[in-house]
Design a protein that fits this description.
Blueprint: E1 2-11, E2 18-22, E3 33-34, E4 37-39, H1 46-58, E5 67-76, E6 80-89, E7 103-107, H2 125-138
Parallel strand pairs: 1-6
Antiparallel strand pairs: 1-4, 2-3, 2-7, 5-6
Length: 139
């Protein structure tokens, strides 16, 4: 089975909300909510992929030191096995704009389960609730 490496990012705003993006019509799993990111290309490090993908998908500039690895998902889809590291980013330059997604939404980590997501994204939610929910409660 083919192994696919995809990297994702949880952008967290100053209010402790996480950005999710709705997959557009015409793409696999259209209409589901996901964390922004994309496929790691040959010769590319995961951090480089995220910087590129966040620029392409959201129009923002992220510096590598602002990307902190949090957790990962390992999920067997019928045609491939997905390995997806999740990074957290709290600092970026520019306004967040939906360039490739049908919609964007800022939600509290506890509300992530209220939005249908691809099966590989769902195991990432508890780590975000633990990290961001805990920090928001202590703020």
């Amino acid at each position: 089975m083919k192994l696919l490496l995809v990297v994702a990012c949880a952008l967290v705003d100053k209010d402790g909300r996480v950005l999710i993006a709705r997959r557009p019509e015409g793409k696999a799993m259209a209409g589901l909510w996901e964390f922004p990111g994309g496929k790691v290309e040959a010769g590319e490090r995961p951090e480089e992929t995220l910087i590129r993908e966040l620029r392409e998908e959201l129009g923002i500039e992220v510096k590598e030191p602002c990307l902190a690895p949090l957790t990962f998902a390992s999920f067997p889809y019928p045609d491939f096995h997905l390995l997806m590291p999740l990074y957290v980013c709290r600092r970026w330059d520019g306004p967040v704009v939906a360039k490739e997604h049908a919609a964007l939404k800022w939600v509290r980590p506890q509300q992530l389960r209220d939005h249908p997501m691809p099966p590989a994204d769902e195991p990432l939610i508890p780590a975000l609730i633990d990290l961001v929910g805990f920090q928001a409660a202590g703020a």
